[in-house]
Design goal:
Blueprint (H helix, E strand, L loop, with lengths): L5 E5 L4 E5 L1 E2 L4 H10 L1 H5 L1 E9 L1 H4 L2 E8 L4 E7 L6 H14 L1 H12 L1 H5 L7 E6 L4 H8 L4 E10 L3 E10 L7 H16 L1 H15 L6 E4 L4 E5 L1 E6 L7 E5 L13 E3 L11 E5 L2 H6 L1 H10 L1
Parallel strand pairs: 6-7, 7-8
Antiparallel strand pairs: 1-2, 3-8, 4-5, 5-6, 8-9, 10-11, 11-12, 12-13, 13-15, 14-15
Helix pairs in contact: 8-9
Length: 298
């Protein structure tokens, strides 16, 4: 984003005017904006702001939330560059893991009993939003065994905000890709044999291969592929097909009976309004453009 230039077109005289990027006046401005629209911007349901960690830890977590897969999320903000943002966030993440019951009580109060019972403690996340990060920050997150996203923000004019994922590490959520593919293949083989094994492996390979920042989140009902927020959810194999749900607006896709379906408003596991039905390797190739569109949207 540091190299991104944004221009406003003038349809009257066919001119263009550059919209200059700038940082927020104060950190609280970024925090307030993100908290007010957290689900749209990050795919995270907002729970609490400036949450006290008590007299022993003596701190306040900027924002607490719950992502689309039920993973607890801590969001820390900095107006510009701050070398302490990652360590501060990791300190709070350690506190969170020691206070699971307190967090679940908060979820129950804000989102209900069902959400509290489905909190996914295998993959708590830290999201750091700042004006910029150094190469040392990027290296540091890759050395930790936690799920950390570094997100750079810029404000454009008075009504535009841009978010760019600088680094994303999955920590405990992600396993080595080869091991993941074997696990997917074994699960499919147990259900439907070699054809489903190969199909599931091909889908896993395609989704993981879309970019370096793709994380996998395992839930009982589905497997989510995440880039800050979910962009694909793969359900367990059915008798003759795999179902993938994508963050693609069904109105922008060519709906083909037996291949793609609009499921907005319909109950299903995972997230996304476009259902893709995969029966053969050719279907996986056919779905590549939809996979890429969903990845880009995330």
């Amino acid at each position: 984003m540091s190299g991104l230039k944004l221009f406003r077109t003038n349809t009257t005289n066919s001119g263009v005017t550059e919209v200059m990027p700038h940082l927020a006046e104060v950190e609280a401005d970024v925090q307030g904006l993100v908290e007010a629209h957290m689900e749209t911007l990050l795919g995270v349901r907002f729970l609490a702001s400036e949450y006290s960690t008590g007299p022993v830890h003596g701190g306040r977590i900027d924002s607490l939330g719950l992502d689309e897969n039920g993973s607890p999320v801590i969001v820390e903000y900095k107006r510009g560059v701050d070398a302490g943002v990652i360590n501060q966030g990791l300190f709070y993440l350690a506190w969170l893991m020691d206070h699971r019951a307190e967090f679940e009580h908060l979820v129950r109060d804000r989102l209900g009993v069902t959400a509290a019972s489905q909190v996914l403690w295998s993959g708590p996340r830290l999201v750091c939003i700042a004006g910029d990060f150094t190469r040392y920050d990027v290296h540091a997150v890759r050395e930790h065994r936690r799920s950390i996203d570094l997100v750079r923000y810029r404000l454009f004019g008075s009504d535009l905000i841009g978010l760019e994922t600088v680094a994303s590490v999955s920590g405990g959520i992600q396993v080595a890709r080869r091991a993941c593919r074997k696990a997917v293949a074994r699960a499919a083989a147990d259900v439907q044999g070699a054809s489903m094994m190969e199909l599931a492996s091909a889908v896993d390979e395609a989704l993981l291969g879309l970019g370096d920042g793709v994380n996998r989140v395992e839930r009982k009902q589905y497997r989510a592929y995440q880039r800050l927020r979910n962009f694909a959810c793969l359900c367990p194999p059915q008798r003759s097909k795999l179902l993938v749900y994508l963050k693609v607006d069904p109105r922008d896709a060519d709906l083909v009976p037996g291949f793609t379906r609009d499921v907005s408003g319909l109950g299903h596991h995972g997230t996304g309004d476009l259902e893709v039905q995969l029966r053969t390797p050719k279907d996986v190739e056919r779905a590549q453009d939809l996979f890429r569109a969903s990845y880009a949207a995330a």
